[in-house]
Write a structure and sequence with these properties.
The protein is mostly helical. It folds into 2 domains: about 10-45 and about 160-225, Helix-hairpin-Helix base-excision DNA repair enzymes (C-terminal) (Endonuclease Iii, domain 2, Orthogonal Bundle); about 55-155, Hypothetical protein, domain 2 (Endonuclease III, domain 1), CATH 1.10.340. About 55% of the residues lie in helices and about 0% in strands. The chain has helices at about 25-40, 55-60, 70-80, 85-90, 95-100, 105-125, 130-135, 145-155, 165-170, 180-190, 195-210. Helix 5 (about 95-100) crosses helix 6 (about 105-125) and helix 9 (about 165-170) packs across helix 11 (about 195-210). It is elongated. It starts with about 20 loop residues before the first helix and ends in a 24-residue tail after the last helix. Bound molecules: iron/sulfur cluster (SF4). Iron/sulfur cluster binds near residues 218, 223 and 227. Iron/sulfur cluster binds near residues 171, 216, 224 and 229.
């Protein structure tokens, strides 16, 4: 830990820059960081518990502005009662709400997952479409959720950007954008395509447990040499 103010939220700080860093050099830096992440988290996957693409889709919708831990506590009972889109499609949002009361925005999410299930049954034969545009037409599913589900459930390459990736993309000098989709494009330009899904999961774990928003653990950081924000704390 460095610097004086350890309470300020640094995620809004201007993006650190390496003057004159070429794309080639930046890609090499990204590659070294990727190698470090692979050493740290060789089996990095989503921490959301799900046993099917449908469950992963529902869990990911529920995880918006909520922790994976809170979602994992709620979903076992939810999936036992509503194991597939057909079952959830027949429920009313009010019937689903008690299962989600411990999760933020539970009323809106209850409505979304019921309407989403009805659309899956009516338009996709009860299956999760392996198509980003079609996924984004589902209630409660935006670019990030669609990218996460395609990557984690079907292995479709993509770097979904959540709050951790937004912070890390800035701290590592990989993107100065604010829009998650544009940040994702910047990251995808730097990391190998066959590692995009891993990069998403690896950076989430790194942001969750090492390069945290308020107190990044810079001392002993395995990517210290390649971090353009080292010494900022
Ligand atoms: S040195 Fe490591 S923990 Fe510190 S800001 Fe950089 S990446 Fe984050």
């Amino acid at each position: 830990m460095r610097g004086k103010d350890q309470t300020q939220n640094h995620s809004d700080k201007p993006q650190p820059r390496l003057p004159g860093e070429s794309l080639k050099v930046k890609k090499a830096r990204a590659r070294r960081i990727l190698t470090a992440l692979e050493d740290l988290y060789p089996t990095a996957v989503t921490e959301l518990r799900a046993s099917s693409p449908f469950e992963l889709l529902i869990a990911t919708v529920l995880s918006a502005q909520a922790t994976d831990i809170s979602v994992n506590k709620a979903t076992p009972a939810l999936f036992e009662k509503y194991p597939d889109p057909q079952a959830l499609a027949q429920a009313s949002p009010e019937e689903v709400e008690p299962y989600l009361k411990t999760i933020g925005l539970y009323r809106a999410k209850s409505k979304n997952i019921v309407l989403l299930s009805r659309k899956l049954v009516a338009e996709h034969g009860g299956l999760v479409p392996v198509d980003k545009a079609k996924l984004r037409e589902l209630p409660g599913v935006g670019w990030k959720t669609a990218t996460v589900v395609l990557g984690a459930a079907f292995g479709v390459p993509g770097i979904a950007v959540d709050t951790h990736l937004m912070r890390l993309a800035s701290r590592l000098g990989f993107s100065d954008k604010k829009d998650p989709e544009k940040i994702g494009a910047d990251l995808e330009a730097l990391f190998p395509r066959d590692k995009w899904v891993f990069t998403h999961h690896g950076l989430i774990l790194f942001g969750r447990y090492r390069c945290t928003a308020r107190k990044p653990l810079c001392d002993g950081c395995p990517i210290y040499a390649d971090c353009v924000s080292k010494g900022a704390w």
